[in-house]
Every structure is written in C-alpha cells, then in structure tokens.
C-alpha cells in the first residue's frame, strides 16, 4: 500500500493519499497543516518502526475505512463498508492500544535518550520495552526532520507492506488480498475520536 503525505501550506486543510494494493485510492483528511509532524505520520512511523500489524495503518491496509477517509478512485470490494465495520468492532481494543503507543512514542521523542528508562517506568500501562521506545522515538525524530525539510507541495511517499495488516477473527482475507503471516505484534492517546470515528 502506497501512502503519500503531502506538505500543504501552513493552516491549510490537508490529506494523506492512500493507494491500497487492490487499486482503490482514498484521501484521509488530516486537518490543518503545521510544521509539526502530522498525527497520521506519527502513527505510520511508530507502527512501521515497531512492525505493528494491527494498528491504524495495518487496519487500513486490511480494509478498514475510517470516517475521515473518502473514496477517490478504484473499484471497492463487495460489502466493503460492512467488512470495515466488522474489522473495527473486532480490533477496537488493538486500535485504541495503537493510539496509546503512538502518543507515548511521540512524547518519548521529545526526551533525551538518557531519560527514556525513567519515562518508561513512570508511564501508566507501558506496553513497550525501553528498547522499543527508543527505536520508535529515533524513527520519529528522523520523520520530523524529513517533514520539516519539505517545501510546500513536497511529498513523502511510503510503502506499507501487505503482510502487515489486520484480518477478521474468522480469518477472512482482507479486501486488499490475503496478507502474508504477520511477523510480530506490536499508536497517541491524544483525545482524538475513537477508531470508528477517525
């Protein structure tokens, strides 16, 4: 799945272009653009660095269509809306966990590496090791540098691997095709809407 983050002018409403592997293209609204790393790029970076298959981006790859997404082109699979709702229902806790992980990693990226162990020890319900936290924080710093260096109109084109996507509990292949087996399981509690309302 190709994901394109676009650097719109500050304060303009932006979107992320998502081209799924089945040829369906969506735009996902991101809200007003600023110099800060976009929330959805934060999630992409963290979930990619930690190889999370069941977070925000793994769910999109697997067929979830959040409310902030609108169809641009390509033929959608039969019953796509129903399958999206089913996936959200089955994976709601994992999606909320991904939001929590993203927020923790974003805060960790603002700290010196020497403070990560203390941060991890003090964070409530910490789901990551200090090593994982450091890896995601470093990836976020690099992503922020790339985003900050983009001129208006510039893009970051990223590829989300097909195998890293969620499925229904019954094992039904995602609408984008049967994913390969996920290699590991591994998101910002920022007051954003619940996963079904993204």
Detailed description of the structure:
The protein is of the alpha+beta class and 198 residues long. The protein has a five-stranded antiparallel sheet. Helix content is 37%, strand content 15%. It is globular. It has one domain (2-197). Helix 1 packs across helix 3, helix 1 packs across helix 5 (130-149) and helix 3 (80-108) crosses helix 5 (130-149). Residues 166-198 are annotated as: Disordered.
How is the secondary structure organized here?
Blueprint: E1 2-6, E2 13-19, E3 25-32, H1 39-49, H2 56-61, E4 69-73, H3 80-108, H4 116-122, H5 130-149, E5 155-159
Region (Disordered): 166-198
H/E order of the elements?
EEEHHEHHHE
- Flag low-confidence runs: 172-197
**Helix proportion:** 25-40%
* Widest β-sheet, arrangement of strands: 4-3-2-1-5
Structural class computed from helices and strand pairing: alpha+beta
Beta-strand segment tally: 5
């Amino acid at each position: 799945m190709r994901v394109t983050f676009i650097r719109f002018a500050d304060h303009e409403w932006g979107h992320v272009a998502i081209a799924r592997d089945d040829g369906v293209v969506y735009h996902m609204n991101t809200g007003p653009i600023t110099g800060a790393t976009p929330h959805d790029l934060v999630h992409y970076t963290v979930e990619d660095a930690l190889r999370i298959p069941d977070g925000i981006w793994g769910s999109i790859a697997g067929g979830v269509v959040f409310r902030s997404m609108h169809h641009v082109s390509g033929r959608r699979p039969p019953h796509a809306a129903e399958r999206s709702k089913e996936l959200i229902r089955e994976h709601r806790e994992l999606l909320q966990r991904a939001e929590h992980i993203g927020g923790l990693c974003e805060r960790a990226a603002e700290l010196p590496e020497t403070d990560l162990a203390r941060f991890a020890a003090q964070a409530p319900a910490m789901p990551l090791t200090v090593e994982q936290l450091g890896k995601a924080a470093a990836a976020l710093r690099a992503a922020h540098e790339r985003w900050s260096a983009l001129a208006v109109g510039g893009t970051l084109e990223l590829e989300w691997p097909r195998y890293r996507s969620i499925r229904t509990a019954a094992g039904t292949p995602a609408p984008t095709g049967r994913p390969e087996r996920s290699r590991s399981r591994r998101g910002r509690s920022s007051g954003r809407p619940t996963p079904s309302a993204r």
